[in-house]
Amino acid sequence: MSEPADLSKQPLGLTELVLRDGQQSLLATRLRLDDMLPIAAQMDRVGFWSIESWGGATFDAGLRFLGEDPWQRIRELKQAMPNTRQQMLLRGQNLLGYRHYADDVVRRFVARAAANGVDVFRVFDALNDPRNLACAIQAAVEEERHAQGALSYTISPVHALEDWVTLARQIEDMGAHSVAIKDMAGLLSPYTAFELVRALRQAVDVPIHMQCHATTGFAVATVLMAVEGGLSNVDCSISALSMSYGHAPTETVISMFQGHDRDTGIALESLSEIAAHFRTVRQKYSSFEGQLRGVDARILSSQVPGGMLSNLEQQLREQQSLSRFDEVLQEIPRVREELGFLPLVTPTSQIVGTQAVLNVINGERYQTMTRETIDILRGAYGRTPAPMNSALRERALREGGGEVELDHETPELEGLLERLNQSATELGITFEHGEPSEEELLSYALFPQISLKFFQNRDNPSAFEPPPQAVDDSAPRNVADVDETLKVRAMGDNEYQVSVDGQSFRVQVHPDDAAGDEQERDTPPPHTSKGTAVTAPMAGTVLRIVASEGQAVAANEVLLVMEAMKMETEVRAPQGGVLCRLMINTGDAVAVGDTLLEIN
User: Fold this and answer.
1) How far is residue 56 from each of residues 49, 98, 124, 337, 448, measured CA to CA in Å?
2) d(C-alpha 20, C-alpha 18), whole Å
3) Is residue 159 within 8 Å of 385, Cβ to Cβ?
4) pLDDT digit string (tens) for 9-42?
5) How far is CA 415 from CA 106, 113, 163, 186, 467, in A?
6) Which of 106, 192, 220, 280 makes the best surface tag, with the fewest CB within 10 Å?
């Protein structure tokens, strides 16, 4: 190993995060392309090393909530910013979904992402299992794009400095052009950052980049000490969407090194228009913001990443359980340890977080286990850093069908294309060129049900969340004028967006309350229970119904599958008997405690 290059006189490179992780962390990934493009040309002139504009949860959110084609987003952003590298966050063998995909899917996805405008691929794995990094890194190298392998940084009794050095060497051996420290929960303290960066620079020849969240209050000091240790590039987010759940402010980082050896060379004046734009944008999307306005020291123990916190609050609201937020934060470290001291980053943060929510709101720990929790315990995501809880693992092997042997080599794409074409025919979906494009096939590969809904409703904005309304600073601000600032927009059956004085809210109206005062409603006959009610463990959507009326079912048999908080949750029979009444259909939205079916 040669001596590390002297960086003392080299400008510090900056990756701007506002279009991806900045808005994902603070605005629950709801920022729309229409609010990015007006400022893109100005961002392109700044001189950032890269702009992170794609990947992470943006792909899912575009299809699921916004009705936006994520492939169109990266194409338009690259066209608007031709002089700046466009960077994406890629979850290795997970890509952007919540399971592992075969190598042919990974290679095709990387190839199409590169063709659509991605220049830098930051590749990480939630378990830091190198087997889950190799294919994506090598695919990016083959596409002649910058391949960056990331360390999903965490702290636990089983993580040590030597482990990070070993993983960095493995990433370099895969052909990566740089190594990134991904501090998704803000756990990297300043002096530890100095030691870690210095150790990595002595171990590998490639540059070291770093991303760290501000949630615990470490971020700015950690950036300073990491640069002192020899960091080449650092992530930051424009001040208007920074700190709290997010990252160190871009302007602050530039000012810290201005006039010194590692001066970024970026003029602060070039950022003022960008910051002003996103201050307005932040007001517009304020209904998606979390409660945190400063530092949350609880994260030092719960280790929930900043990108998940605002989403977790949003999801607890949907579960009508926001008041139990602190209980969930206390439950998360317990679940994490029982699942093998997982680093908490997508998808493991979502898996652990959702399981913690279920454990809290159901009143009994692991009364219900998500499909993804079962798969973690079965080994479907790779090697965990530490042994898992043996009782939970035995149960998962029983319910899930045994140990999973990872197989990334068996091709998947051909079978996916057949299923997509079959589903499209059944649902009456047509594609522009007769057959689905490669991008459409890859969207389906990652999110089958969500993509089908998107394909069906491309020209039907009402099937998705309505765009937030711009804040009118001239609007009246007193109670007497509230009628002039009240707007109601239908989103779907019994669901509305209500905007009051610039603040937007989503409201669901129970069908019994939906009729006007002058309408007389037919009173349905009282429901007579025929057996034991099986209720929804949490709010979500009925994804698949496995059992049918009149079918004999055994205790613990899977009856249906729900999607809740982006995870699949199996609803099982509490007892043996006959399924005597189904009270839901596939695609139905249900609330916590709603009766799904009855067994006698």
Assistant:
1) 19, 11, 11, 24, 18
2) 6
3) yes
4) 799 999 999 999 999 999 999 999 999 999 999 9
5) 15, 21, 38, 41, 36
6) 280
The 3-state secondary structure of 434-476 reads CECCHHHHHHHHHCHHHHHHHHHCCCCHHHCCCCCCCCCCCCC
d(CA 199, CA 204): 9
Among 233, 243, 176, smallest CA distance to 210 is for 233
Q: Omega before 347 cis (within 30°)? A: yes
According to the 3-state scheme, what is the secondary structure of 512-529?
A: HHCCCCCCCCCCCCCCCC
Which tokens belong to 590? 């249900």
Rg (CA), the chain: 24
CA distances from 157 to 129, 160, 386 (A): 18, 8, 9
pLDDT digits (tens, 9 = 90+) for 294-352: 888 878 877 777 656 666 777 788 778 889 988 998 899 999 999 999 998 888 888 89
Rounded Cα distance between 82 and 51, Å, is 11
- Coil, helix or strand at residue 8: coil
Least Cα distance to 220 among 262, 171, 255, 268 occurs for: 255
Cβ(210)–Cβ(181) under 8 Å? yes
- pLDDT tens figures, 50-94: 999 999 999 999 999 999 999 999 999 999 999 999 999 999 999
Q: Cβ–Cβ contacts within 10 Å for residue 458, how many?
A: 13
Integer CA distances (angstroms), 67 to 32, 63, 75, 258, 458, in order = 10, 5, 16, 42, 7
Which residue's entry shows tokens 């920022």?
A: 31
Copy the structure tokens of residue 244. 């709290």
